Amino acid sequence: MGRSSKDKRDIYYRLAKEEGWRARSAFKLLQLDEEFRLFKGVCRAVDLCAAPGSWSQVLSRKLKGDEGKGTEVKIVAVDLQAMAPLPAVTQIQGDITKVSTAQEIIRHFEGQPADLVVCDGAPDVTGLHDVDEYIQAQLLLAALNITTHVLKPGGTFVAKIFRGKDVTLLYSQLKIFFSGVTCAKPRSSRNSSIEAFVVCQGYTPPEGYVPNMSNPLLDHCYDVDFNQLEGPNRVIVPFLACGDLSAYDSDRTYPLQLDPNKAYQYLPPTQPPIQPPYQKACLLRKHNLLAKENLSASSTPEPSACQEQGLSPHQDVSTNQEQAETA
Ligand SMILES: C[S@@+](CC[C@H](N)C(=O)[O-])C[C@H]1O[C@@H](n2cnc3c(N)ncnc32)[C@H](O)[C@@H]1O
């Protein structure tokens, strides 16, 4: 694929580079904010699963930008992967499903709870949809668990969600903690993807609830179809297409020259990942060491770009694709 073909195919990838965002995901948070005014009055925020850091960039620019708030702003960003530094962002490299990581985050907010927690966590997809959806749900619940320790009453939690078959259970669990839960789909999230975002507003834990990291929210012994839940157990949350609806359509291909008065110019990505997990595979592939020696080229079909990256075509894998592009 030529360097400019990705620019042509993915308008948000290209705009991200033009505007200096580390990933196209930045537009998802910006468009969610257009709809929900997420950053209003926010000084302290947590960005879970933050690498390569475009959501942290958005938080840093938006929160620090408000007059006189600069010094009070506190942003804690967490990811398994290392991330290049950002102004006003404290970084923790760790797994959000681990109690030790959660405890480290909680320590940063002792005495001063967070106003906003966001989580754009995505697993390394296996291609087995049920497994991917399950792992995604676990990430969301780990994020919710951490949130119950650090979020102030009335605060907001935003998280990526896969609208898979058990999504109703997740909505029900979120409704226990928040007065308002909406499933939102920003314009920059492809319609072809099952990805969406839950925007949970008005944090109100149930009376007597004591946050406890050793008490996972999703127990492992259910075997019913949660979409059969009835009565008060079945929560149907509103679904909202959000962001300015005249914004670019992330499923469309756009010409390279968008503005007739401005010539197209290729721009490199704003911040290549520091040590991406696919780096070794790229190196092996470059030296033709990925194929097994005893298999002839004719008997080994060329893998698709998705397969090479271990990606499932049903998901919005923009960030992974961007990273592969920069490798
Ligand atoms: C879609 S990317 C996040 C993009 C980010 N919001 C941005 O705008 O740059 C998903 C991230 O989730 C992280 N992740 C997945 N599982 C995780 C876990 N258990 N703990 C911490 N981070 C995790 C991955 O390392 C990856 O960087």
Automatic annotation (TrEMBL):
Q: What class of enzyme is it?
A: transferase
| Binding-site residues, S-adenosyl-L-methionine | 53, 55, 79, 95, 120
* GO terms, molecular function: tRNA (guanosine(34)-2'-O)-methyltransferase activity
> Which residue ranges does the record annotate as region Disordered?
293-327
The main location is cytoplasm
**Keyword set for this entry?**
Cytoplasm, Methyltransferase, S-adenosyl-L-methionine, Transferase, tRNA processing
What CDD domains does this protein's entry cite?
A: AdoMet_MTases
**Known catalysed reaction(s)?**
cytidine(32)/guanosine(34) in tRNA + 2 S-adenosyl-L-methionine = 2'-O-methylcytidine(32)/2'-O-methylguanosine(34) in tRNA + 2 S-adenosyl-L-homocysteine + 2 H(+)
Query: Per the UniProt entry, what is one GO biological process?
Result: cytoplasmic translation
Instruction: Specify residue ranges for compositional bias: Polar residues.
Output: 295-327
GO cellular component terms listed in the entry, alphabetical order: cytoplasm; nucleus
Q: Which domain of life, per UniProt? A: Eukaryota
Which residues are catalytic? 160
State its Enzyme Commission number(s): 2.1.1.205
Sequence ranges assigned to domain Ribosomal RNA methyltransferase FtsJ in this UniProt record? 21-203
Give the subcellular location. Answer: Cytoplasm; Nucleus
Record function comment:
Methylates the 2'-O-ribose of nucleotides at positions 32 and 34 of the tRNA anticodon loop of substrate tRNAs.
Q: How does it assemble?
A: Interacts with WDR6; the interaction is direct, and required for 2'-O-methylation of position 34 in substrate tRNAs.
Family statement: Belongs to the class I-like SAM-binding methyltransferase superfamily. RNA methyltransferase RlmE family. TRM7 subfamily.
Q: What is this protein called?
A: Putative tRNA (cytidine(32)/guanosine(34)-2'-O)-methyltransferase
Q: Which organism encodes this protein?
A: Acipenser oxyrinchus oxyrinchus
